[in-house]
Amino acid sequence: MSTVSVRIPTILRTYTGGESEVKADGATLREVISDLDAGYAGIAARILDDGGKIRRFVNVYVGDEDVRFADGLDTATPAGSQVSIIPAVAGG
Amino acid sequence: MALDAADLGPATALVCRECGEKYDLGPRYACEQCFGPLEISYDFAGVSREAIEAGPRNIWRYRGLLPVPSNVESTPNTEPGLTRLVRADHLAESLGMQRLWVKDDSGNPTHSFKDRVVAVALAAARELGFKVLACPSTGNLANAVAAAAARAGIRSAVFVPSDLEQQKIIVTAVYGGTFVTVRGNYDDVNRLASEIAGEQDDWAFVNVNVRPYYAEGSKTLGYEIAEQLGWRLPDQIVIPIASGSQLTKIDKAFQEFIKLGLVEDKPYKVFGAQATGCSPVAAAFKAGHDVVRPVKPATIAKSLAIGNPADGPYVLDVVRRTGGAIEDVSDAEVVEGIRLLAATEGIFGETAGGVTVACLRKLVSTGALDPEAETVIINSGDGLKTLDAVAPVVGPSAEIAPTLEDFRASGLA
Description:
The complex is a heterodimer of chains A (92) and B (413). Chain A is an alpha+beta fold. Chain A has helices at 29-39, 43-47; strands at residues 3-7, 21-25, 58-62, 65-66, 82-87. In chain A, β3 and β4 form a beta hairpin. Chain A starts with a strand and ends in a 5-residue tail after the last strand. Chain B has a six-stranded mixed beta sheet, sandwiched between helices. The N and C termini of chain B lie far apart (69 Å). The model of chain B has no long low-confidence stretch (mean pLDDT 96). The chains are: A alpha+beta (92), B alpha/beta (413). At the A-B interface, β3 and β5 of A face α6 of B.
């Protein structure tokens, strides 16, 4: 079981009691989000759609990599990884 | 922040484009339910051709259609807009077209359309209580933010990819302010800005946390085109795509003018233009997809090099709804497009302008665009900012001694 650090965007901090960075466990992003939901009930449903996929307007990074360029929810999250959840609505 | 006192003109609320959730006006930009983008809704009153024509000769003539205070002209700003709409007969002739116009937005104070969006973002940011004007940028926005902040007398904080064109680095740095080059591409810088925005409460990242207001500034391009055509809409319009926001907002402007009765309701087609080295929206269009798969950009058209375009899905909606198309062109074609526009119309566009002209040519040749129908294309920025693109392929006709003999011998007469 590996522990990673997860950066929480402003609009999800109501779930984390205002914390901008929290710890979670999991060998893959899927497990990390599941563990996150165990600690902060309801947060997974904000990140994932009804079909269990990452929502269209959410970008998730493991380290520097956008997981859409890696293995999506199956992207490996080695111990000490930095996971960032970021609204996609920006730029241009 | 003191929102009670905020005057955002005709704006009434923020509404999620994805799920319809409604929010009070404020410094929000993503839906708390689904992360979808928030769009401003309005209650327009007192908007007429006469009221607009009596307004200032800049974008504030449309203030009754923007999320800005009624006294927006009284605070120092760059007063962008009302750039020229050029009848491009020579370019039309070279492409076998009948009636073509270039909306030349290089005429703005910092030489790109970004002055429009920044002016609206600045006005809204003031009302929302922000203290710093910030942005991630591919260059043009950096120029516009740094200049607007200087003019407004507030701090700017600008983040750009470190491999940006030298011209864009210099023309941003000259305005002072905090200016950071980031070792990464635009999408990396954009991500960093989103993370910083989550930490710095009083920083208005114009295209991140005040994006709903900022993006509305692009509507003024559409308003001006319609007004400058004599209060009517063109048949076709070709618009470059970076995030896709400009394209969707020009369409929104046309739709608002129709609904307000300011122009006659008529069909028009919206076309999108991308560089092949960063063409996720063109690829999605051609494949018939309604989602856009992000790419890693590799093109000289850096101002369009957004691999993960936030408004891509909405661009697809607009283009398909209006019966347009999205085309993409190689870097060599981009350079050719810049030269063609300059040589036929005396307009030196930046790489994004080259993309648009080259895509126009391709759309005519594929038959997607009707050469007989009245067409407008956007030149969104100034070629002086992307000299590197054309430097290798243009130069003097000859070098001669200062003598008449040498001139005669050169064969240039």
